[in-house]
């Protein structure tokens, strides 16, 4: 009996093996051809694993928070004096900013300048990383159900971190600005020199197509230019970190590997991407999950400063 | 009458342990830990699992399961799809062919075998990723990932053995 079964088993085994290898190669080819099915499958799988990932990322963030707390206690001891001084100085700046904001609003009113009130934000949490040497991306626990659409800008509290590349029903994947497929239209704050920020999988993306290179110096701030209409203009991206051999490297303002909470910004423009890639923004259903902030005055950070200014006494 | 093999004693649940454990490992490896630079050099836990089970209990890690595990890994990590299933299948074939040298040997020898396997796998990944994207990728992150994968193997192997024994005792 076994003299028949064993060779048959081996044969079946070899056959399965070959079929699986061929299947792998076919999938690689399909993936290379960027078939929509694969993108949908990715989104569906991410959606299916979202609850597990959310549950797992909670303890992970608790551990991170505990480590941070120890660091904080040490740092606080050293920093409290310096911070008190800085706080006094910032209070003065806050007053100035508040006055300027009012003045700005009045002047805009005089000029009949349309405000950027079409932008709205979706707040999400990072529940997964790319985990590999190929990609720089993160998985976020907000998807099409929450109003997320392809092409939206993703920013942390500090600055831009990337853009939405894939959207599932409950999750979405943000391509970080360090990924080698990331191209973001930026400009240098102050001189308004336009450039493209191109990732190359290293920690510091580089500036391409910079027209007047001699004016650029390390420490210059880089912000989104709003060209192409994908991103709102003026979101902080980072600072010019080094210039060597004609390569202008930018240090991202946000610490990309440590971002836990982020905002997805819908600017309400489809830009240069084909209309199918960027569906028109739909207003988020009010009151769901309480995670969405309603429209606020335009550029990132402005909302925060105005609400902060309301609670403090105006000089 | 033949002696009852270990396989027959094992309950159905215990037989699923290697595959379920590896699936869990795929999900765990993308959990954000907030360690700077960790995401790019996360050890390839699936490689550890495949090597470990192919050496000790190859029948519990069938090719079909490897295919599914690899596919899940590619879908979740947004890497080039299809590459992980192919890699895992090739690695399994490679390890199976050399298996008799490692079975029953001391752990350092098995570990050394794993190091050689990881070097082969990383080279394959790097070449394949370069070919798929049309340009060479920075080999450093692949090298770091390989070093970290080899370094983590003893701990992972210990966990695999413990969980399996625990399930065996209960099942």
Structure description:
The complex is a heterodimer of chains A (315) and B (171). Chain A is of the alpha+beta class. Among the domains of chain A are: 2-33; 121-284, Thrombin, subunit H. Chain A contains 3 helices and 13 strands; from the N terminus they run H-H-E-E-E-E-E-E-E-E-E-E-E-E-E-H. Residues 270-315 of chain A have low confidence and may be disordered. Chain B is an all-alpha fold and 171 residues long. Chain B is built from 8 helices and no strands. The two termini of chain B are 25 Å apart. The relative contact order of chain B is 0.15. The interface between A and B is large, with 54 and 46 residues.
In CATH terms, the superfamily of the domain at 121-284 in chain A is Rod shape-determining protein MreC, domain 1
Biggest sheet details of chain A: 6 strands, antiparallel, barrel
Low-confidence stretches of chain A: 270-315
Mean pLDDT of chain B: 85
Give unreliable regions of chain B as ranges. 1-7
Quick overview:
The complex is a heterodimer of chains A (315) and B (171). With 315 residues, chain A is an alpha+beta fold.
Q: Which properties best describe this structure?
A:
A: Thrombin, subunit H, 6-stranded antiparallel β-barrel, 13 strands, globular, B: 171 residues, mainly alpha, 0% strand
